[in-house]
Design goal:
Length: 205
Protein backbone atom coordinates (compact mmCIF):
# COMPACT_ATOMS: atom_id res chain seq x y z
CA UNK A 1 0.00 0.00 0.00
CA UNK A 2 1.24 3.41 -0.90
CA UNK A 3 0.50 6.12 1.65
CA UNK A 4 -0.98 9.04 -0.26
CA UNK A 5 -2.38 10.95 2.66
CA UNK A 6 -2.26 10.85 6.44
CA UNK A 7 -4.30 13.42 8.25
CA UNK A 8 -4.91 14.03 11.94
CA UNK A 9 -8.67 14.12 12.59
CA UNK A 10 -9.45 14.27 16.31
CA UNK A 11 -8.18 13.49 19.82
CA UNK A 12 -10.52 12.64 22.63
CA UNK A 13 -11.11 10.51 25.69
CA UNK A 14 -14.66 9.51 24.86
CA UNK A 15 -15.45 6.73 22.42
CA UNK A 16 -18.79 8.33 21.54
CA UNK A 17 -16.90 11.34 20.16
CA UNK A 18 -14.75 9.29 17.79
CA UNK A 19 -15.44 9.85 14.07
CA UNK A 20 -18.83 8.56 12.94
CA UNK A 21 -17.65 7.38 9.53
CA UNK A 22 -17.86 3.63 8.94
CA UNK A 23 -14.26 3.13 7.90
CA UNK A 24 -12.06 0.24 9.02
CA UNK A 25 -9.97 1.17 11.99
CA UNK A 26 -6.64 -0.17 13.29
CA UNK A 27 -5.58 0.58 16.85
CA UNK A 28 -1.97 0.82 17.97
CA UNK A 29 -1.29 0.26 21.64
CA UNK A 30 1.55 -0.79 23.93
CA UNK A 31 3.55 0.12 26.96
CA UNK A 32 4.89 3.66 27.06
CA UNK A 33 8.19 3.97 25.25
CA UNK A 34 7.68 0.80 23.22
CA UNK A 35 8.19 2.83 20.03
CA UNK A 36 4.57 3.40 19.03
CA UNK A 37 4.92 6.98 17.84
CA UNK A 38 8.06 6.16 15.88
CA UNK A 39 6.28 3.22 14.25
CA UNK A 40 3.26 5.32 13.28
CA UNK A 41 5.51 7.97 11.78
CA UNK A 42 7.53 5.33 9.94
CA UNK A 43 4.40 3.63 8.55
CA UNK A 44 2.90 6.88 7.34
CA UNK A 45 6.17 8.35 6.11
CA UNK A 46 5.56 11.37 8.27
CA UNK A 47 8.11 12.39 10.86
CA UNK A 48 5.64 14.30 12.95
CA UNK A 49 2.26 12.61 12.69
CA UNK A 50 2.43 10.98 16.10
CA UNK A 51 4.38 12.81 18.74
CA UNK A 52 7.59 11.05 19.68
CA UNK A 53 8.97 12.19 22.95
CA UNK A 54 11.21 11.22 25.79
CA UNK A 55 8.30 11.70 28.17
CA UNK A 56 6.34 8.47 28.35
CA UNK A 57 2.70 8.80 29.28
CA UNK A 58 2.30 12.17 27.61
CA UNK A 59 -0.22 11.29 24.96
CA UNK A 60 -3.23 10.07 26.87
CA UNK A 61 -5.96 10.41 24.33
CA UNK A 62 -7.53 8.40 21.52
CA UNK A 63 -6.01 9.92 18.38
CA UNK A 64 -7.63 9.33 15.01
CA UNK A 65 -5.62 9.69 11.80
CA UNK A 66 -7.29 9.20 8.46
CA UNK A 67 -5.07 7.37 5.97
CA UNK A 68 -5.59 7.43 2.20
CA UNK A 69 -9.09 8.76 2.90
CA UNK A 70 -10.33 5.21 3.51
CA UNK A 71 -9.11 3.88 6.83
CA UNK A 72 -8.29 5.13 10.32
CA UNK A 73 -5.08 4.60 12.18
CA UNK A 74 -5.79 5.03 15.88
CA UNK A 75 -3.03 5.94 18.28
CA UNK A 76 -4.00 4.95 21.83
CA UNK A 77 -2.34 5.96 25.08
CA UNK A 78 0.65 3.99 26.26
CA UNK A 79 -0.12 1.92 29.33
CA UNK A 80 1.75 0.91 32.42
CA UNK A 81 3.68 4.02 33.09
CA UNK A 82 4.20 4.36 36.84
CA UNK A 83 4.41 8.13 36.94
CA UNK A 84 0.87 8.58 35.71
CA UNK A 85 -1.20 9.19 38.82
CA UNK A 86 -3.48 6.36 39.83
CA UNK A 87 -6.56 8.46 39.12
CA UNK A 88 -5.44 9.35 35.60
CA UNK A 89 -4.58 5.73 35.02
CA UNK A 90 -8.04 4.60 36.05
CA UNK A 91 -9.67 7.14 33.77
CA UNK A 92 -7.72 6.22 30.70
CA UNK A 93 -8.12 2.57 31.35
CA UNK A 94 -11.88 3.03 31.38
CA UNK A 95 -11.91 4.91 28.11
CA UNK A 96 -9.48 2.47 26.56
CA UNK A 97 -11.68 -0.45 27.58
CA UNK A 98 -14.72 1.49 26.33
CA UNK A 99 -12.95 1.96 23.04
CA UNK A 100 -12.13 -1.75 22.65
CA UNK A 101 -15.53 -2.93 23.80
CA UNK A 102 -17.73 -0.46 21.93
CA UNK A 103 -15.97 0.71 18.83
CA UNK A 104 -17.63 -1.22 16.00
CA UNK A 105 -15.27 0.08 13.33
CA UNK A 106 -12.26 -1.49 15.08
CA UNK A 107 -11.11 -4.35 12.88
CA UNK A 108 -7.70 -5.08 14.34
CA UNK A 109 -5.62 -4.06 17.34
CA UNK A 110 -1.86 -4.01 17.02
CA UNK A 111 -0.20 -4.74 20.34
CA UNK A 112 3.33 -3.41 20.33
CA UNK A 113 6.02 -5.38 22.13
CA UNK A 114 9.68 -4.40 22.52
CA UNK A 115 11.44 -7.37 20.94
CA UNK A 116 14.34 -7.13 23.38
CA UNK A 117 12.35 -7.76 26.53
CA UNK A 118 11.04 -10.89 28.17
CA UNK A 119 7.26 -11.13 28.06
CA UNK A 120 5.88 -8.55 30.49
CA UNK A 121 2.91 -9.29 32.73
CA UNK A 122 1.05 -6.15 31.76
CA UNK A 123 1.26 -6.96 28.03
CA UNK A 124 0.14 -10.54 28.58
CA UNK A 125 -2.78 -9.30 30.67
CA UNK A 126 -3.75 -6.88 27.97
CA UNK A 127 -3.51 -9.59 25.27
CA UNK A 128 -5.64 -11.90 27.41
CA UNK A 129 -8.17 -9.12 27.80
CA UNK A 130 -8.37 -8.71 24.00
CA UNK A 131 -8.95 -12.46 23.77
CA UNK A 132 -11.75 -12.31 26.32
CA UNK A 133 -13.58 -9.55 24.50
CA UNK A 134 -12.81 -11.18 21.13
CA UNK A 135 -11.06 -8.27 19.48
CA UNK A 136 -8.82 -9.50 16.63
CA UNK A 137 -5.22 -8.50 17.18
CA UNK A 138 -1.69 -8.90 15.89
CA UNK A 139 1.57 -8.46 17.71
CA UNK A 140 4.09 -5.94 16.43
CA UNK A 141 7.59 -6.47 17.74
CA UNK A 142 9.41 -3.13 17.80
CA UNK A 143 13.05 -2.01 17.80
CA UNK A 144 14.30 -5.09 15.93
CA UNK A 145 17.48 -3.19 14.98
CA UNK A 146 18.49 -3.31 18.64
CA UNK A 147 19.17 -7.05 18.59
CA UNK A 148 21.19 -9.06 16.10
CA UNK A 149 19.24 -10.58 13.20
CA UNK A 150 20.14 -14.06 14.37
CA UNK A 151 18.44 -13.43 17.71
CA UNK A 152 15.12 -12.27 16.28
CA UNK A 153 13.70 -15.78 15.84
CA UNK A 154 14.64 -16.88 19.34
CA UNK A 155 13.04 -13.77 20.88
CA UNK A 156 9.85 -14.41 18.92
CA UNK A 157 9.94 -18.07 19.96
CA UNK A 158 10.29 -17.04 23.60
CA UNK A 159 7.25 -14.81 23.24
CA UNK A 160 5.28 -17.60 21.67
CA UNK A 161 6.18 -19.80 24.62
CA UNK A 162 4.95 -17.16 27.05
CA UNK A 163 1.63 -16.93 25.19
CA UNK A 164 1.20 -20.70 25.14
CA UNK A 165 1.86 -20.69 28.89
CA UNK A 166 -1.01 -18.18 29.09
CA UNK A 167 -3.38 -20.67 27.49
CA UNK A 168 -3.12 -19.35 23.95
CA UNK A 169 -3.23 -22.18 21.45
CA UNK A 170 -1.04 -20.54 18.88
CA UNK A 171 1.05 -17.49 18.20
CA UNK A 172 -1.13 -14.76 16.67
CA UNK A 173 -0.06 -13.12 13.44
CA UNK A 174 2.97 -10.99 14.18
CA UNK A 175 5.26 -8.48 12.52
CA UNK A 176 8.89 -7.71 13.27
CA UNK A 177 9.62 -4.03 12.83
CA UNK A 178 12.27 -1.38 13.22
CA UNK A 179 11.30 2.25 12.80
CA UNK A 180 14.93 3.16 12.44
CA UNK A 181 15.40 0.87 9.43
CA UNK A 182 11.78 0.80 8.18
CA UNK A 183 11.76 -2.97 8.67
CA UNK A 184 8.34 -4.58 8.43
CA UNK A 185 6.70 -1.54 6.86
CA UNK A 186 5.66 -3.21 3.60
CA UNK A 187 4.35 -6.36 5.28
CA UNK A 188 2.29 -4.42 7.80
CA UNK A 189 0.78 -2.12 5.18
CA UNK A 190 0.06 -5.10 2.93
CA UNK A 191 -1.75 -6.80 5.79
CA UNK A 192 -3.89 -3.70 6.42
CA UNK A 193 -4.57 -3.41 2.70
CA UNK A 194 -5.74 -7.03 2.57
CA UNK A 195 -8.10 -6.62 5.52
CA UNK A 196 -9.47 -3.38 4.05
CA UNK A 197 -10.12 -5.03 0.69
CA UNK A 198 -11.97 -7.87 2.36
CA UNK A 199 -14.11 -5.40 4.32
CA UNK A 200 -14.88 -3.22 1.32
CA UNK A 201 -15.72 -6.30 -0.77
CA UNK A 202 -18.04 -7.80 1.82
CA UNK A 203 -19.54 -4.45 2.81
CA UNK A 204 -19.32 -5.69 6.38
CA UNK A 205 -18.75 -2.75 8.64
P1 LIG B 1 6.20 5.63 22.41
O1 LIG B 1 6.26 6.19 23.80
O2 LIG B 1 5.76 4.20 22.42
O3 LIG B 1 5.45 6.47 21.42
O4 LIG B 1 7.73 5.52 21.90
P2 LIG B 1 8.58 6.48 20.94
O5 LIG B 1 8.23 6.24 19.51
O6 LIG B 1 8.51 7.89 21.46
O7 LIG B 1 10.02 5.84 21.15
C1 LIG B 1 10.62 5.71 22.42
C2 LIG B 1 12.14 5.70 22.28
O8 LIG B 1 12.55 4.54 21.54
C3 LIG B 1 12.66 6.89 21.49
O9 LIG B 1 13.89 7.27 22.06
C4 LIG B 1 12.85 6.36 20.08
O10 LIG B 1 13.85 7.02 19.36
C5 LIG B 1 13.24 4.92 20.36
N1 LIG B 1 12.82 4.02 19.26
C6 LIG B 1 11.54 3.88 18.80
N2 LIG B 1 11.51 2.97 17.80
C7 LIG B 1 12.78 2.56 17.59
C8 LIG B 1 13.39 1.62 16.68
O11 LIG B 1 12.75 0.97 15.82
N3 LIG B 1 14.75 1.44 16.79
C9 LIG B 1 15.48 2.11 17.73
N4 LIG B 1 16.79 1.84 17.77
N5 LIG B 1 14.94 3.00 18.59
C10 LIG B 1 13.61 3.22 18.54
Amino acid sequence: MKINSAEFIISNSDVSKCPLERLPEYAFIGRSNVGKSSLINMLTNNKNLAKTSGKPGKTQLINHFKINLNWFLVDLPGYGYARVSKKTKEVFQKFITDYFEKREQLVCAFVLIDIRLEAQKIDLEFINYLGEIEVPFCIIFTKADKISKTKIDSHVAAYRKALLANNWEEMPQYFVTSSLEATGREKLLEFIDGVNEEIFRSGNL
